[in-house]
Structure prediction request, 601 residues.
Amino acid sequence: LKWADGPVCSWPDGAELSLVHGKIPGFGDGLLSIAADNNAALKFRFTWLEDRSFDTYEELKQAVYEEYSDQLNLTASSNEEGTAIDPFVYDLYHSVQLIERFGAKLESLVSFRKARPEERHIPWGQSRHLYNFSSTQAYIPGRLDVCSCQDLLKCPNGTHFGGSGAVSIYNCQTNGNEILRRVSLLPRDQDEGSARVKNSTDYSELGGGHKSNTIPTFKLEGLETAIIDLDVTGLPTNMTYQDDYRVAVYVDCKPCPLRYRCEESTKQESSCSTPTKVQQEGNLNDCLRQERRQVCVRADGSDADVEWCKEKTLHYENDTSTYEERAAFESKYLLYTEPDLHKCLSMPLFCDNTSWNYRTFRRLCRQTLLDGSVGAPYDCSLGDRWEEYEQWANALCCSTDPSFQGINACVDGVCTKDDHVHSILQKSFGDTFRQAYGFDPPQAAPQGSFIMDAVLQEARGHPAPLELFNEWKDGPAWSNDTLKPHNVNHATESTPWRKESGCCQCQPHPMPSYFGEAVKDSMFPDNKHQHDQFTISALSSVELTVVVELLHGQYYPDFDEYFSTYDRSRLRVHTPRRSDDAVERATWMAILDKDVVDAVP
Prediction:
C-alpha cells in the first residue's frame, strides 16, 4: 500500500499453506494435529445433544463454522425472546477463532492462576473472616480478554433494560417480580423463638443457593407481637433496598419458587409469564425424583404397616442368627420407596390454581409362564381395568346387539371364551370402549403377581415420575371397591381429590412505610444500611414466612455470603397475659369498645 510519499508496506508470500487447509502459524510443520495418541479420531461434545468425532483440525473448523452460521441465522430470525446459540457450538467457535488468530502463541495467552482470598467465593454458611482459604485451592483465568460468553453484555438475572443505549450494568433495572434467592430471617437453633418454627428442613426449593437453605414457617398466636431486628450494615454500598433486595413477610402461604414471574394482568392465560406450564410440571417431576416416602407391600400387592415393616427389617439387619425368619419375612413383605406425591403437591410449584384427581404410584406385576420363565412386567392395575372391561363385555355379549346373535356369545350372563366373540369385541367395539372408559380394552385377564424387587418397583431413574402414577375417577377408596380409571373423554365425571391454590396468589404483606421510602443516606443510595427493626402483630393465629429476597443478579455472591450465616437477624415475641411479674417480656393489651369510641364526639 502506498499513500502519498509515505512508506510502502508489503507482505511477501509465506512458506505455509493457507489456514483454510489447516495450516497454523508457529508450528514446525505448519500443521495442527487434534488426533489422539493412538491415531484415533478425537471426540468433541459438538452440541448440547450431540457428540462428533474429527480426524483433522480442518474438519472440525469447517463443521463449527457451518453449525455456528446456521444457528446464528436461526437466532436472528426467531421471534422468541432469549433464543441463543447452543453453548457448546459457541465455545467451539470462539476456540477456533483464537487458534486462527494466535496460532501456537495461544498457549501463552490461555492460563489459570491461583485466586487471591478477596477474589474467592466462600462456601454457603461460612464467614469470610473465619474461613481457612489455605485448605482448598481455587483458580481463575489469567487473562479475561481471551474468554468469551454470549451473555456477557446482557443484563444480570432479575433485571432488564428497555430499548437500546445501555453503557454499563448499572443501566439495568430490577424486574421487581422475580426473586433470585431467599434466606429466612427466622431463628435457627439457639434463638428464643425456635420452638415456634416448623418445617425447618423443608422448602429448600424456595431458597436456592444450597440444599440446606430451607424456608421454614413461624407461628404467631392471636394478639402476640413479633419483633425482628435485622443487621444490614455489612452489605455493599451500592446494594440498594427495593432495587436489589427486599424483606418480605408472607402470611398463611408459601411464595412461588425462584425465577417465577407473576403478572398482575388478568388477560394472560397464566398468572405468570415464566415458567411455562410444561416447565412447572417439570418442576413437579424434579420434586418427585427427590422426595420419596417408604411403603410396605405384601406379596399379594396389598399394603402393610410401614412402621412395623421398618422395625422388622431393622431387627433382622442387626440379628444375623435369624436367617430363616428373615428370608420368610422378605418373601412376604417388600419395603421400598416411591415418589411422595402428597408432599410435592403441597409445594407451591404451579402459578395457577390446580385440581388433581386421585393418583397412586403404579405397582409392577409379572406372570410366571408354563415353562418356568417369567413374562414382561406390567402394571398391576391392569386387574382393575380388566374387571371394568369384563363387566362391559358381559353386558354387550348378552345384549340384543345383532353382532352377537346366532353365535352363542353369552352363557349365564357371561361372554363365552370364543376367539370369534373376542375378535368382535376388540375390532368392532374397541373404539366404543375407549371413548366410554378412557383406556384400551385389555386383551386377556392378568395372571401375574406382585414383583418382590425394590429396584424395579422404585424406578428411580425415570425422568418423569408423574407419568408412573395411575389416575382414578374417585378416591381414595376407603372400601374394597375396585378403583375406576379416570376417563379423559369424560373428565367432569371424576371427583377432584385435591385442590391447590396457585402460588401467584401468595404475595408479600405490605411493609411499614419506612421500608418503602427511597431516601438517600450519607454515602449510601438508601437509608437501610443500618440496624433495621419491624414488628408483626397478629389479630388471630397466623403462620408466617419471613425472608430477605435478592432481586438483582449482580449481587448473588454478596447476598449469599452475607445472609447464608443466618446470624443477621434476631426474633423476639411478646405475649399478652394477665398481670404476672414472673413472666418476662409480657405486654399489656389495650381493648377498646367500638361503640364507646364511636360515641366520642
In short: DSSP finds 14 helices and 29 strands in the chain. The longest helix spans residues 57-77. The first strand starts at residue 42 and ends at 47.
